[in-house]
Specification:
With about 300 residues, the protein is mainly α. The chain has helices at about 5-30, 55-80, 85-110, 115-140, 140-145, 155-180, 200-225, 235-260, 265-285, 290-305. The chain has 2 domains: about 1-145, no CATH class; about 150-310. Helix content is about 75%, strand content about 0%.
């Protein structure tokens, strides 16, 4: 029996983790978070009747179990392979965090969905997804075989800033979701008919901060897309896709509000946020120079001084 390749397992695990994110968003969007009031069992059973909100909540738990096994298996396969030290460390981190994530998921139910725990659960889910996506990228044949020139220092900085802003916006979105502030501004693109609404209620503040965050993401990713126009094809394409996803996210967010938070639209908005996060992560990773490029850059001044080509 042939050993499983880390790159293949990483891609499968990343795809499964994305499905888990969709399942989790479906639980929140349909108000099914307490459809199963106990944990780790469901109504004292391993397999309760799969109907109504139970279908979403218990289905989410079943998918989470599969993903946890895949992530633990990935960490083991990486540890036994010739993968880079970075990939192995990321595998260990993902395995550790998915165990913490399971515990947080249980606490959200047992403590009756406290916003702080629910937001931490959402943030950690995106973190685990990012770790697995990073493993999938750096174990790919393209990554390992590429002599990466990377990108200019300016674009590398823009990519890191964009990644940070996107993650902060995802946290703001989780705050909106788990505090019930999704319709605090019931119109779009204005808020209560104004560009800057009267911030008279905490929910309006939370919702409006999320909208301001969307503007920050648009500016950060837009600057990255403009700056990456003369970079390598992977960096350039990743930045362009990220900017397209931002525009899609704005449209989905507006449509979700105008629809009264239609579950299909809120789940799609959540999925778009996850894809935007890993796309900016893609740009961050591919904008980093490879080892050969770093060595060449470090020896170029010395070689120039000696009069020999670097």
């Amino acid at each position: 029996m042939r050993a499983v390749k880390p790159a293949v397992l990483a891609r499968v695990t990343a795809a499964a983790t994305f499905v888990l994110l969709l399942a989790g968003a479906s639980v929140t969007s349909t108000g099914s978070g307490l459809a199963v009031p106990d944990w780790p069992l469901s109504y004292g059973m391993l397999m309760p009747p799969m109907k109504g909100g139970i279908l979403f909540e218990h289905g989410h738990r079943m998918i989470a179990g599969v993903v946890a096994v895949l992530i633990l298996a990935l960490a083991i396969v990486l540890a036994r392979s010739d993968a880079s030290r970075t990939a192995k460390r990321l595998g260990i981190a993902a395995a550790a965090l998915v165990i913490v994530q399971a515990g947080l998921g249980g606490l959200t139910v047992l403590l009756r969905l406290p916003p702080a725990v629910s937001i931490a659960h959402a943030a950690l889910a995106m973190t685990v997804f990012s770790l697995v996506a990073a493993i999938a990228i750096i174990t790919s044949d393209g990554w390992r075989g590429a002599e990466r020139a990377g990108a200019s220092p300016r674009v590398r900085s823009l990519a890191r800033v964009a990644l940070g802003v996107v993650f902060a916006q995802i946290l703001a979105g989780a705050l909106v979701r788990h505090t019930g502030a999704g319709l605090a501004c019931p119109d779009f693109p204005l808020c209560h008919g104004r560009l800057w609404p009267a911030l008279t209620h905490p929910w309006i503040v939370i919702h409006f901060v999320h909208r301001l965050g969307a503007l920050a993401v648009l500016l950060a990713v837009g600057a990255l897309a403009l700056g990456a126009r003369r970079e390598g094809p992977r960096v350039r394409a990743g930045a362009a896709v990220a900017f397209g996803l931002v525009l899609l996210q704005v449209a989905l967010g507006g449509a979700a509000v105008l629809s009264g938070l239609e579950p299909a639209l809120t789940v799609a908005h959540h999925a778009g946020g996850a894809l935007l996060l890993v796309t900016t992560l893609w740009v961050v990773l591919w904008s980093r120079p490879g080892a050969r490029a770093i060595v060449a850059a470090s020896t170029r001044p010395l070689a120039s001084g000696l009069g020999v080509p670097a």
